[in-house]
C-alpha cells in the first residue's frame, strides 16, 4: 500500500516583491508595514547583510538587505527600494525585522493548486527558507518562509542589535 504525502496547504495572500529580476512572496500575515528607506544607523561587527537599525515610532528595528542575505549583487537603493517590516513570533517572543527589497509589487491571493514543491537540486543546497514555487500569470514566484530566512543565531544577534 503506497502512502500519500500530504503537502501543507500554502494558500494565502502573499506580498510580492522583486530582487534582482526575480519575484518573491511573503505571507501577508507576517507583514507589519512597508516604508521608504529612512536613515539607517549602522551596527559594527555584524554580517554584511545587516545594514543596521531604524527607529520606527519609538521601536528600534534591525534591518537586513535581502539581496545580500541571498548572496546576490549589491545595488544602489533608489525610489522604488523599500523596507518591509516583518513580524516574527519565535519562542513566544515577537521580533520585528526590516527587510530591504528592490521593489514591492502587489498582494496576490495564491491558492494551493498554483503552488509546487520547492525544486530539488540533487546537491546540498539550503532551500529550507523556500515554502514552494507559485506559477501565476506566466511568472514564477518563490514563496518564502520568513521564519527560516535567518538562522536562530542571526535572529538572536538581530534581537540584541
What does this structure look like?
This protein is mostly beta strands. It has a single domain (12-160), classed as CheA-289, Domain 4 (OB fold (Dihydrolipoamide Acetyltransferase, E2P)), CATH 2.40.50. Helix content is 11%, strand content 47%. The protein is built from three helices and eleven strands, in the order βββββαββββββαα. The protein is globular, with a radius of gyration of 16 Å.
Q: What is the residue-mean pLDDT, rounded to a whole number? A: 86
Major beta-sheet overview = 6 strands, mixed
Q: Find the count of extended strands (DSSP E, 2+ residues).
A: 11
- Detail the poorly predicted runs: 1-6
N-to-C span: 53 Å
> What is the ordering of alpha helices and beta strands?
EEEEEHEEEEEEHH
Principal-axis shape equals globular
The CATH architecture is Beta Barrel
Helix content: 10-25%
CATH class: Mainly Beta
Numbering strands along the chain, what is their spatial order in the largest sheet?
8-1-2-11-10-9
The CATH H-level superfamily is CheA-289, Domain 4
Q: Based on helices, strands and strand pairing, what is the structural class?
A: mainly beta
Beta fraction: over 45%
Count of helix runs: 3
Number of domains: 1
CATH topology: OB fold (Dihydrolipoamide Acetyltransferase, E2P)
Write a brief structural summary.
With 161 residues, the protein is mainly β.
What are the SSEs and their pairings?
Blueprint: E1 12-19, E2 22-27, E3 31-36, E4 50-56, E5 59-65, H1 66-69, E6 82-90, E7 93-101, E8 103-110, E9 115-116, E10 130-136, E11 139-144, H2 146-149, H3 152-160
Parallel strand pairs: 2-11, 5-7
Antiparallel strand pairs: 1-2, 1-8, 3-6, 4-5, 6-7, 9-10, 10-11
